[in-house]
From TrEMBL, chain A:
Transmembrane regions: 50-68
Keywords from the UniProt entry: Membrane, Transmembrane, Transmembrane helix
Domain of life from the UniProt record: Bacteria
Pfam families: DUF6186
Protein name: VanZ family protein
From TrEMBL, chain B:
Name the record gives this protein: Uncharacterized protein
Keyword terms: Membrane, Transmembrane, Transmembrane helix
Keyword Transmembrane attributed: yes
Stretches that traverse the bilayer: 44-62, 74-96, 116-133
Length: 70, 135
């Protein structure tokens, strides 16, 4: 029962990601795509340090390591 | 003779074209898909590929697509899937109930043991990383 709940929850979140991305890609949509949100986050800098870029790269690398190397 | 700057277009580098980058990513993914979890080779491989992409992404070697200067308030819609995912990942992680109430990575582990699915996951990871580098 709890296992089905977990699987269902992750599937719902996946579907929601797809729905928001689909809405974002519709012509004239004001909702930014996930790529645009990531690009905006990556613009964040503290002085000369591209904190947003480093943070997002680090997060994505960790995600790959977590799923694909361990 | 000097040409006006607005008339000059920087030619894309050969390795920056999809016809080159996609086959390279496929080859890297096929290699990665053969490396089992918890192996030294898998750790070294992901360190090398990820480290290389981070290095390219932090240098100015690849042309970047323009990023939006501001996000409209409707961007907050992205918090809906993020929150749903965060609630379930957090709950399953805190419960630590193993297979009875599994985290996403525990659910994905049996699937990723198959080399074809593992290669596909590698391709998704690498191509997204490449997309981030170009942003």
């Amino acid at each position: 029962m709890m296992r089905a709940l977990a699987i269902g929850g992750f599937l719902v979140s996946l579907v929601l990601f797809a729905v928001v991305e689909w809405v974002a890609r519709r012509e004239g949509s004001r909702v930014p795509s996930l790529a645009d949100v990531c690009a905006f986050v990556m613009r964040y800098e503290v002085g000369p340090v591209p904190v947003g870029r480093i943070g997002l790269f680090g997060f994505w690398w960790w995600l790959g390591w977590h799923f694909l190397a361990r | 003779m000097d040409h006006p700057r607005e008339l000059t277009v920087e030619a894309p580098r050969a390795w920056d074209r999809p016809v080159v980058s996609v086959p390279v990513l496929i080859c890297l993914s096929l290699v990665g898909g053969q490396l089992p979890s918890f192996s030294t080779a898998a750790n070294l491989y992901i360190l090398t590929t990820g480290g290389g992409l981070i290095w390219v992404g932090l240098s100015n070697r690849v042309p970047r697509r323009p990023a939006p200067r501001r996000l409209p308030s409707v961007a907050l819609w992205w918090l809906v899937p993020v929150t749903v995912f965060g609630v379930f990942e957090g709950a399953t992680f805190m419960a630590a109930a193993g297979d009875d109430f599994p985290t996403l990575s525990r659910l994905a582990d049996p699937l990723l043991e198959d080399s074809v699915i593992r290669s596909a996951a590698w391709f998704a990871w690498l191509s997204t990383f490449w997309g981030l580098v170009r942003r």
